[in-house]
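Human
Can I borrow your eye for a moment on a structure tokenisation matter? Give me a protein, with the fold worked out from its sequence. Write it directly below this note and I will take it from there.

Assistant
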Amino acid sequence: MPPDGDIWSSKICNYLNTLIHLQRHMKEARQDILDAIKIYYKELGFRRDNSRVTHQAQARTALSNVMREHGMKYEEIKTYVNRDHSTIIHHCKHHADELKTWSGYRKTYEKCKAIVGSALVGDLDDMIAYLKEKQDALQVQIDEYLKKKEENDARIKELAADGVEIG
């Protein structure tokens, strides 16, 4: 039996609304991250640029590592640090050694973790809350469909008991 058109069009509308909400949420999250990065550089006491001077390199390295620790992909991180993904991989690969040996890096990293890391955690908390809401709504739908199925099964048994053939 083909699916009911109204049910499927309703599901498509729900899906599209979810996508729109996620896009809006992602745009807001990206802005939160950009705002946190501005605060981070202000706290470091210099303007962000693409130079190779030590303090700029340390700031980018710390930023790469904090973002990676919060589950961001290399391709995503590169948009925030203005470097290609191989540089991000390099930052992450050498992080432990840099904490031990690169003068000033640990302090920069800790500052980044406190400022940018908190923005990233807040973003995840918001996403978790949103997904839990969606889960609750889906559970209500599942319960409704299960109830309808039970009603249909009971009706089929009644019809079968009355001798009605169901094909």
Observations:
- Residues 5-129 form one domain.
- The chain is about 80% helix and 0% strand.
- The longest helix spans residues 105-161.
